[in-house]
User: Fold these one by one.
Assistant:
Number 1:
Amino acid sequence: MLTKIEIENFKGIGDRISVPIKPITLLFGANSAGKSTIMQALHYVGEILERQNVDAGRTARGGSGIDLGGFAELVHKKDIGRAIAIRLEFELDGESLKDYLADDKYVNAFEIRFEEDSAALGDTDYQFNRVQSFWVELEIGYSYFVKQPNVTRYSIGVNGKRLATLHYKPGSIYAYIESIDEDHEVFRVDSVPFDNPGGGISVNIATSAYARCGSQAPSSKLSNAPLQFKTNAIYGALPRLNEILEFPDLVPDPSMYESGNGHSSHDEKGPGGI
């Protein structure tokens, strides 16, 4: 269930605002007070996530009744040097995630093998039951290089704690994991040794997978070793949500991208650019 929406630099909204959402939410206010802006922000996020339509005019859900006008009309004060940010927060339980278990693309059981012992790791039913809430935030900026808007940052959090942020610098064929919390609880899987059902260990699947990088790894911390994945100007930092996200290479030079401070980093300056 959607519980909150945060909006920044979208239409008449400049500084970030936070709007709590309840099972029944009523918006009251004078004309031009921003009531429709909340609904339009939801339509815009839907267009981006479902259709990768960052420069949305007509929307699939709104049909002929909604015309957002494109990024230049949506960004605050029509200043394409600004970055739109929209964050959606949700509450849910593991039951609502189990449909994914029917898809062969998703792992529904884990096993780890040591030199002499093996351990069966908790299945994804248990993992999903840990997820009580999550949020996703999109940042959209305009690129003067490719002359179109892009998703420049895509951030997700689980149970009130940031999990990862993806970053895209327009003009590149790669997007990057700008930050990732490898110590987050979603990466921890409890195991039961086959020969000792009463015992158990806890395995961090993120750092375990990263360890396979071997000598290529510049540090022992996943968060200090930016990973890249192929993308394009349409997707930007937005991962292909119906595909497995693969990381072909370690980025050799972290200076290839900017770590940023939560605001868009544009590839070059233009009128009103930063």
Number 2:
Amino acid sequence: PGTYDAEIHGNTYTGGSYDYYTTFLVNPHPIITPDNHNLPRADVDTVNLTGSGVNFISGSQDVTIVKLIKEDPDTITASKVTVTSDTSLSAFFTIPQDARPGFYDIAITEPGTNRIVTGRGEVFVKGTYQDSGYVTLPSVVTQGQTVTITTASNISAQPYCYPSDIYLQNGTSKIPGSVVYAAFPDTIIATFQIPATADTGLYSITMMLTCDSECCNFDSIPNAVNIEAPAGVADNNPLLAEINSLRVSPNPTQDNLTISFILNSPTHLRLRLFDALGRTVATLCDRNLGAGAQHFEWSARALPAGSYFYELTTGEEMHGGSIIVRH
């Protein structure tokens, strides 16, 4: 800040030249501070902003526009702005479901069309595991096994984001993992030592992300891993006894996939498939079946590549796991 001399050299239309001298005062750049640094997508949030070196009120005219800017066209405009003083205001944002995750600058239009852009990435829009991502798992995860999971996160392109915790969870059962490689926004590789006494069933993958030592957010893939007892060993859940020899192949798949198994007794069975957001994409069976070998075909040809999940339920048990579609 302070007074600067300006020296301008120019040419006239007639080919001559001129010099122009003046002085101007440089003021400190305004500082804008939000009270909420983390905004989940598909959510509605109010961000209270306080500033120094600003003037949000000029006579009877208040600020009219507040935006979050990542880079064009990634702009989120507040639908309502309430100015509470010349240095504070509240901005009401609706974060789109498809907003690009990462840090956003705050842009404020002051009275008289003066525009302030922080350029400091003050607000972080949270992403999720499911963003055009995938999860690569072993075809069978059994008790006592060490497994490696590879996932595309697409959470943030910022280099100072890193996973600080990752685990599998099924109800109160929690299996911690170790991150062995993380390259944002592309790949996370983690290993899990599955205890020999782990409860069988579907587990979610949950990760805690720390960004620039300021913001942490949990992202989870529901029912991503199915832990089973080793072949020839009785399952530690006495209810899981109706279905044997469950196979899903080929997995990954490019078009057609077969889910086959053996029913030990007649039962009502439901077989559904979900996308990474938990939406049902197909119901392959929802009826009574007799005992014996069963198989169901599923065509993924018309669906986008990515992670999908199957859920196989009877009156007494549930099986499930992930399916990778690649085109």
Number 3:
Amino acid sequence: ALRVALTPQEAASLGQNRPEDVRAYDLYLKGRERYGHYNEAALREALSLFEQAIALDPGYALAYAGLADSHGQLVQWSGDADPKEHLRLGLEAAKKAIELNPRLPEAYKSHALVLRFAGDHAAARTELLKGLEADPRHTPTLINLCVDAFTIADLAGAERGARRALDADPQEAFALLWIASLTLFTGRYEETIAVAQRVRKASDSPFYTGGSYSLRMMVDLKRGDTTRIVTMTREAIAAGAEPIVFQPYVALAALIDGRVDEARRILGELAQVPQLGFGQLLTAASLALRLGDPAAATQFMSRPIALAIAPTTIRIESDLMALADVPAFAPRRMDQALVWPLEAPMIDAARFRLFREMKVESGLPER
């Protein structure tokens, strides 16, 4: 009843991963729905649902993969002081999923996710490639390869990964978020706005609603236009997004408009909020630097959700370039080649010098 129509990919997956007890699949679907909200409470609910599915069917590999994914995401969303237990349990669940079904792309993707949060990016990349070998059109694997490419400054490769995911599923909201972010970082603002609007249509989850409005606000702020920030904030909250999501943009708009005390007050409040997404952390860090507080900016960009992609981000975002000299992100020149999308306006020399070398490749997948 939960799944009226199946795509060919979903039908094949069900055929390979049919649970012994149909109730386990019902719990799995509910767990994935909660997982997609990307906040601590929802992830803990997902964790419980996957555990219930496993209790009904101890051989259900998909449920173990969901369990691993949830533990991995809780490393960055829970704010736990010590993530070691989530990492241990996540690795244990992912390995069990692979043992139960070595041809399950979700198993390798979940293993890669936990490995990435454990800091082993090379091993995570290897697991993602195994997942892609199992299913070349598996969208979560393609999206995670996009994230992996971004961490090593391969923006063109990241864009190809996200666009391949959209080829497989044009309504894949997370892939749309990444395309919008990559076009934002590379100066293609009209495309950012258009794709952000597609995110809003693809999902009514508070996470994606917030992301859609956030990206459009970031475009306005890059253009120095503060006139719509308050209006869009009200619209987004009315549509179900969390109010705290928009405080960094409200604060930066206040600073641009000369309301320094208001901006400084909100910055102090943001430092106490444990669950901020990457766009909010990036904007809060930019705000902190403009207010002369590099320590606060470093703390925002050092949070678990931002840490892996911070080195690339602070070198391609002009507002954050000062952080390249901070010990947490030193040395100033990143020992990676920046791979810039051919479709984007050319990067300026100041940012180019923050990388070992520069290459230009198409961000469009080969057809």
